[in-house]
Specification:
Blueprint lengths: L1 H13 L8 E5 L7 H6 L3 H12 L6 E5 L3 H4 L1 H9 L3 E4 L7 H4 L4 E5 L5 H9 L4 E4 L6 H12 L4 E7 L3 E5 L12 E5 L2 E5 L7 E6 L5 E7 L5 H17 L4
Parallel strand pairs: 1-5, 2-3, 2-4, 4-5
Antiparallel strand pairs: 1-11, 6-9, 7-8, 10-11
Length: 244
């Protein structure tokens, strides 16, 4: 029994522990989920319903927009969520603490100031968030506010405002873009992937100028090296195992 326990302890110690973190979706602009965004690019409905499905693992979920920004308070977004069977609520009048946030399958954010310690705890415990950028012309300030939080997940906002109004075509094959042909943009700010070698964080879509528009951190994406580690640590356990 002691020999078996020794082998198990060696393998457990050497094998990397997988993160419990949830999903962070980062959008460069708030307009895609606004009423105007829905009217200009109707496949925005598929976009938000795909995100909700991802956050709720394919089931119907409970979602809250902790924001007073027009991109979160519109009737089109609410109708898209409720018509898919989800529960949707909006406002900054809820208690922003871990126990409250854990009652939701996802939190949608745009411009509102939050307690980043609580938000980090929520994501690290498996919570999911959608964050829209470009909510102010002071994009440098917005980047300074949000980047310390986002950098934990390999993501970041640019401090430069992107100007112009357009329907950006979507070519990404990621599940959040299933049946999404274009999304409406009015400016915004570029989003970054800070570690291209980490499969969990990535840019999903670029604009015609090569600037990141949508990005994701998804802890459920297990890097290939993790599988290799399982093999190596198992082999090491056998090598280090010495009968007494």
């Amino acid at each position: 029994m002691k020999k078996t326990m020794k082998l198990l302890l060696i393998c457990t110690f050497l094998t990397p522990q997988l993160s419990l973190a949830g999903i962070v979706i980062l959008a460069n602009d708030e307009w895609p989920t606004s009423n105007t965004g829905f009217s200009q690019a109707p496949s925005a409905m598929n976009y938000v319903q795909n995100i909700a499905s991802l956050f709720a693992d394919g089931a119907t979920g409970n979602f809250h927009a902790y924001s007073n920004n027009f991109s979160m308070t519109g009737s089109s977004l609410a109708n898209a969520m409720t018509s898919a069977g989800h529960t949707w609520s909006v406002g900054t009048n809820i208690d922003f603490n871990l126990s409250t946030l854990q009652g939701f399958d996802g939190i949608f954010l745009a411009s509102s100031s939050v307690d980043f310690d609580v938000l980090t705890q929520y994501v690290n415990s498996g919570g999911n968030i959608y964050l829209a950028g470009g909510t102010t012309s002071s994009t440098g300030l917005l980047a300074n506010i949000w980047n310390p939080f986002l950098n934990q997940y390999g993501l970041g906002f640019s401090s430069v405002l992107i100007r112009g109004t357009t329907n950006e075509p979507i070519s990404s094959s990621h599940v959040i873009f299933n049946n999404v042909s274009s999304l409406h943009q009015v400016g915004g700010q570029e989003v970054f992937d800070l570690d291209a070698n980490d499969a969990r964080n990535q840019i999903l879509e670029f604009d015609s100028n090569g600037r990141g528009m949508y990005a994701i951190y998804d802890a459920t994406v297990v890097p290939v090296p993790a599988a290799i580690w399982l093999f190596i640590t198992g082999a090491l356990g056998l090598v280090l195992y010495k009968p007494r």
